[in-house]
């Protein structure tokens, strides 16, 4: 695309002694995009963000903001908005003074400060809180003030490191929506760090999945979710069944794959390199892509297997099952029509060819 790249990492490495926290990393963040670094604890997300912020120096490589190399530019000259989990509000300053901090630092005029702080507080929907102190606010309100403080300076980039993780579950979901809304309204280029896959899927334009200091895969939420390219990504995002099989027949993109102990499955290799007859493959099938029914449905091109319900985990509008099929135990998540299938019930198990993701065996 021809949109401006606001942040670029080129061959960026971070070493601590002889431990490499971030392997040579290349990354480009487009103007206005909401990009998420997603991965398990310790994979290098915070280290990457700290290098963009100027809180840690890269061991190698270049960091560019709006096209200019910033490796040697200190944090306060990078024009960033930062909300880190442990980047607390100043406890002895009022909400107004907390939010005004960056503007005062930049020696903005008094009237302008008043106007912009009031706009920022409106945006995070806490206009009446200006005179309070942080300890007079709830955790969620404090987090919104931290966000107001970050955006009030109209930064080139907003850096968010697990900003919602200290909030309880209900509040976190609400804040997710609000944060995304504010980011969208302002069109502010954002790098967001989380280990929470549902947060990443809900909020991002683009997800960078990281593992052990490396980028495993990047793409839109739909892309990384529906087309994982590695076992790691398949396991980390969502509930996946992994099966080993061998191609027994191939007709264009249509494949038949024998899975030992399960039977023959039909798959579709569209969008991937078509494997040869006889090739061994690893398959991923998402738990919610497998459809259970009491009687086989005739009209689809799906593979139909027979299974028996092993366990039922009732979740309200859906249920999670383990279903025995041959010698396998498949995880299935299905919406509940009237009532969930009971333990021991015999069910028809249907898998559509396009829902079978093909991986190379590792
Ligand atoms: P994440 O944010 O993905 O959980 P971090 O970027 O914080 O991961 O850490 C990545 C790896 O680098 C971890 O193994 C961590 O222990 C290590 N690490 C981070 N900071 C330092 C440091 N200052 N000194 C030594 N090792 C560090
Ligand atoms: Mg971290």
TrEMBL record:
Its GO biological process terms? quaternary ammonium group transport
Reactions the enzyme catalyzes: ATP + H2O + polyamine-[polyamine-binding protein]Side 1 = ADP + phosphate + polyamineSide 2 + [polyamine-binding protein]Side 1
What top-level class of enzyme does the UniProt entry assign? translocase
- Protein origin, superkingdom: Bacteria
Q: Which Gene3D superfamilies match?
A: 2.40.50.100, Nucleic acid-binding proteins, P-loop containing nucleotide triphosphate hydrolases
Record's keyword annotation contains Membrane: yes
User: Where in this chain does the record put each ABC transporter domain?
Assistant: 7-237
Entry keyword annotation includes Nucleotidyltransferase: no
Q: Which InterPro entries match?
A: AAA+_ATPase (IPR003593), ABC_SmlMolc_Importer (IPR050093), ABC_transporter-like_ATP-bd (IPR003439), ABC_transporter-like_CS (IPR017871), Mo/tungstate-bd_C_term_dom (IPR008995), NA-bd_OB-fold (IPR012340), P-loop_NTPase (IPR027417), PotA-like (IPR005893)
Signal peptide span per the entry? none
State its Enzyme Commission number(s).
7.6.2.11
Q: Which GO terms describe its cellular component?
A: ATP-binding cassette (ABC) transporter complex
GO: which molecular function terms? ABC-type polyamine transporter activity; ATP binding; ATP hydrolysis activity
Q: Which UniProt keywords apply?
A: ATP-binding, Cell membrane, Membrane, Nucleotide-binding, Translocase, Transport
Annotated TM spans: none
Q: Which family does it belong to?
A: Belongs to the ABC transporter superfamily. Spermidine/putrescine importer (TC 3.A.1.11.1) family.
User: What assembly does the database describe for this protein?
Assistant: The complex is composed of two ATP-binding proteins (PotA), two transmembrane proteins (PotB and PotC) and a solute-binding protein (PotD).
Tell me the function of this protein: Part of the ABC transporter complex PotABCD involved in spermidine/putrescine import. Responsible for energy coupling to the transport system.
Name of this chain's protein: Spermidine/putrescine import ATP-binding protein PotA
